[in-house]
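User: Fold this; tokens only.

Assistant: Input:
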Amino acid sequence: MFKKTSGQIDIKVVILFVFIFIFTLIMGKFIIRTSANLVLGAVFGIAVFILCFINVKYALYTLIFSMLLSPEFGTRTTEGGGMTVRLDDFLLIIIAFGWFARTAIYKELGLFKKTPLNRPILYYMLACGVSTALGMMFGKVQPFKGFFFLLKYLEYFIVYFMAINYLQDRKQIRNLVIALLIVFVIVCFASIAQIPQGERITAPFEGKGGEPNTLGGYLLLILSVVGGILLNTNKNDSFKYKILLASMIFFAIIPILFSQSRGTWTAVIPCYLTFLIISKKRALLGIMLVLTLVLGPFMIPKAVKERFEYTFQKQKGWAAKYQEKIGGVTLDTSTSERISSMKKAMEAYVKHPVFGYGITGWRFLDAQYLKTMVETGILGITALGFLLYSTLRETRRVYKNTEDKFHKGIAMGFFAGTIAMMTHALGANTFIIVRIMEPFWFLMAIVITIPMIQEAEKSQKGALEKKNDKPAFTPSPFILRW
């Protein structure tokens, strides 16, 4: 155990043991005066930090399974009041610190690997940061609240860069996708189990006042990826594999319907049309679309029909005063409230059009694009638009250029899923919702890594072929004469 140098114990080992001894004394005093739950939480956090420091792989898989399966504490209102904290919020912070510590010590690993999305991400974060800083200076943003919301936005991109730095080969991509799909299946069955309760279903462990819209967005995103993989299978793939993928889609459709999320239902349309346009199996998709349109009205559950009809139902009494009309069509009070908030947001935006009010500087608004405009101004909405455009551009490039069917399916599905999330964001803060953005940026990292891995494989294969084609050693004429 002890290294000896010139008959003496290595000084580094002594310093290490002294540090451990002092740390143990401090922790002993802390444990005596602290509750058992807090101690267990601290031990768990330290364990996760150590695991992340040892190997990023453990951190990534921990995050994947905590995305949708971690408990939520606190309460919130539909107007954005209250506060909720989730276990993976803490995990992400701990893992990020572990990753920073690892890259600080092992400098050859690099902190932010160069990718086509680095610049769009930087522009978006700068726009958010400058707007929020100005909002703090002028008293529109509470410093504590604004800082932690800004940190939350940054955390999503940390997930992206951690995954980018970890992924090195096809096996790692496949294993991460399998882990994401396992969580997806668990969420589907946990959501279906809520249907008999007769209420709108939400994500597991979401607590009181959960968001069905969040569940619908998450399910549609992962369902798109599964659909892309299924559409890119060929004759050589086993029948069981195809049935497994088709079953995942079927079991995801059920909770999407019973979430009664109209934003998710709307996002399904451009998602399916995207598959119809870019997939080579258009005939199959066209037949399925016709069958859905013909048989759908007879198969759709009663609760789904009632939710759809409620959107255009005229209220009686005082509630009728708060209903908005568009093109002569009366909308329900919930939709009317969103439209009213959007009108007020546009009025507020005109007052601060360049930098906005800063993150959390204006009232709660459940509409991503208008929220971004009001909070970060024209700079922020332009940066977000550039980021989304770059995401679609790079995903399409990967889809067109890759030859591997599995990778092609992931890229196709993520492209359609991104289109769906952009539609979903019309009536929700999709691109800042943790349960949607964590898997979104995980998948983005996988897609971006595909061409990098393929290039590395080609280079390795070329070097191997060059080595094999190298002519055998031929002695010089002098040696032959000798």
